[in-house]
Amino acid sequence: MSNIQRFRNRKEANRSVFRNKAKSPAKSIFRDLLESSMMLLLGTSLIIFLNWLSEEVSWDEILNSTGENFMVGVSSLIEGTINLGSIILVLCAVLTSVLLILGSFWRFLRFVIRLRSFSKHRNIRNMR
Question: How far apart are the first and last CA of the chain?
Fold first, then answer.
């Protein structure tokens, strides 16, 4: 067997993606009847429960309180986001001011050093 045939055989042995799956046996008639009757029973029970629940509970009060709570929550969330943004803005302003002050001190120090070196050079020239 040549190397190409070995490679093809190995490649086909590992390829399980495109193989046809084994067909599952068909469901029995009894199982179909059982599933359909259980689904029908659960569906009608749920409808009866929801009908009973609507008579016992005042949905208007629940919906109104839910809407009010939702609006209070959204307004609190917006207020908290605005407060967080203002804190971040103030922190950025403080950081900028600290950097500006440190930069000004650094430049002032460079100015003093250059002024001293300039005055030393000037004194040396005057001595000659």
Answer: 101
Nearest to 40 by CA among 32, 50, 29: 32
Tens-digit pLDDT profile for residues 72-110 = 999 999 999 999 999 999 999 999 999 999 999 999 999
* CA–CA gap between residue 125 and residue 69 (Å, rounded): 84
Q: How many Å apart are CA 19 and CA 9, to the nearest integer? A: 15
DSSP percent split of the chain into helix, strand, coil, nearest 5? 85, 0, 15
How many whole angstroms separate alpha carbon 35 and alpha carbon 45?
15
Give dist(CA 66, CA 86) in Å, integer.
Answer: 30
Q: pTM of the predicted model, to two decimals?
A: 0.46
State the Cα angle at 38 between 35 and 43, rounded to 5°: 125
Domain regions of the chain by residue span: 28-57, 81-128
CA distances from 113 to 37, 51, 97, 104, 110 (A): 96, 90, 24, 14, 5
